[in-house]
Amino acid sequence: MKIGVLALQGAFIEHIHILKKIGVQATEVRLVKDLEPLNGLIIPGGESTTINKLAKMYDLILPVRRFAEKKVVWGTCAGMILLAKEIKGEPASLGVMDIVVERNAFGRQVDSFEEMLTISKLQNGNSKPFPAIFIRAPKLIEARNNAKIIARLTDGTAVAAIQNKLLATAFHPELSDDDRFHRFFLALATA
Amino acid sequence: MSENNASKTVGSFTVKVGLAQMLKGGVIMDVVTPEHAVIAGNAGAVAVMALERVPADIREQGGVARMSDPGLIREIMASVSIPVMAKCRIGHFVEAQILESIGVDYVDESEVLTPADEQYHVDKHPFKVPFVCGCRNLGEALRRIGEGAAMIRTKGEAGTGDVVEAVRHARTVLGEIRSLQQKPDEELMSYAKSIGAPYELVKQTKETGRMPVVNFAAGGIATPADAALMMQLGVDGVFVGSGIFKSGDPASRAKAIVEATTHFNNPEILAKVSENLGDPMVGINISSLTENELLADRGW
């Protein structure tokens, strides 16, 4: 099992650290050729506009789109924005997931927050809530067709979705020391 | 202040450090107008630093350098969707309160402005907004983190376009971390005393082998090669101040520095992005500056 983390900008090393900790080979992806040996890809948090621009400049959009047709892809925060078919007020980037998102929808940095979430997909006999960290986070406005909401805040706001082998979270499991989301993603990759 | 209810926590150290983690591998650019901010955003900057004067002009014009007009900062905030940072003077906690109230995403307690307090820095813990502070060595970095800084930048020498001090400070900090890892635990308390740093942070730095928060380089970066040099030395990202908007072609240079920061280990790409950028900022050779012209010595 070899997982790549898009390393154009952002918190890619945090994902790599967790993947290595749970025994998975993890590599940085900056160019199209880096995608070839991979079983799955994570698009990390960062500045979505920066990551999107660099992905366009280095011709990564189409190859990642094709990759997402066959293999597992997980986007956290900025990564979720890139995966979405619809971004409020902006053109879509990869546009592979049937979700509608809105950037910075919780406000500026002073509004960034942590919340403990109960996520049934992660329970697996473990009832511990998941520490979700939201940094200038996007909102998941809607999931359509095959995309399904899998996590909500206590106020009902949707914050994670799944669509077959595509996964999106508005928060950052890579910033916590709870590796259950990464294990869940690996289970999707091997399923 | 932290506002907590049963399930939701705002302004925790985790979310303060979290934004810095999202900025990694990126370029933060000094801008003095909304137009500059748009150019920076279009070039792929991860954040902008809203200022009235870039450091090169502060140097040239002299006088007291203070927090920028909040009206100007608001205009810059309205012009881009990326995070906006702004500077307060060292120790000027009221400027910091003002910046927090207008909603900037990061406050830079900066030696580039004229210090307001020659003994004490701002107590940064009570703020909801995160702070970035400068350092020249590990002791200074850990003192700032002890006061609540959620991000560190090595100081370099702002407004010179000479990368030599940025290199010196990054090598010092990263070298000190490497040698700290070799120390046996019984030496840590005396070491903490000798560098004037909190013991717990010294211990944590030894255990993890890295700075407890994200560490960018600043002060003198003017070319794509300078940015890649700092990244290869081991910093997490770069601040570019005067280097962009004091150059001949700011839009192209800004974009090239962004690409160089991503592909810092790829000389072929670095060569390509370094072509045809027009004139770099003229710059000042640091060895020609007198001691009291050095900004990096501010901070205690």
Describe this structure in words.
The complex is a heterodimer of chains A (191) and B (300). With 191 residues, chain A is α/β, with parallel strands linked by helices. Chain A has one domain: Rossmann fold (3-Layer(aba) Sandwich), CATH 3.40.50. Helices cover 27% and strands 31% of the residues of chain A. In chain A, the strands form 3 sheets. Chain A has a 7-stranded mixed sheet, with helices on both faces. A 3-stranded mixed sheet of chain A has the order 5-6-9. Chain A has a two-stranded antiparallel ribbon with strand order 7-8. In chain A, strand 11 and strand 12 form a beta hairpin. The mean pLDDT of chain A is 96. An 8-stranded parallel sheet of chain B has the order 8-7-6-5-4-3-2-9, with helices on both faces. In chain B, strand 6, helix 6 and strand 7 form a beta-alpha-beta unit. In chain B, helix 2 (34-43) packs across helix 12, helix 7 crosses helix 9 and helix 10 packs parallel to helix 12 (250-262). The chains are: A alpha/beta (191), B alpha/beta (300). At the A-B interface, helix 1, helix 2 and strand 7 of A face strand 1, helix 1 and helix 12 of B.
What is the CATH fold-level name of chain A? Rossmann fold
When the domains of chain A are counted, the total is 1
Please give the CATH architecture of chain A.
Answer: 3-Layer(aba) Sandwich
Instruction: Tell me the quaternary state.
Output: heterodimer
Distance between the termini of chain A: 12 Å
Mean pLDDT of chain B: 95
Distance between the termini of chain B: 25 Å
Count of DSSP helices of chain B? 13
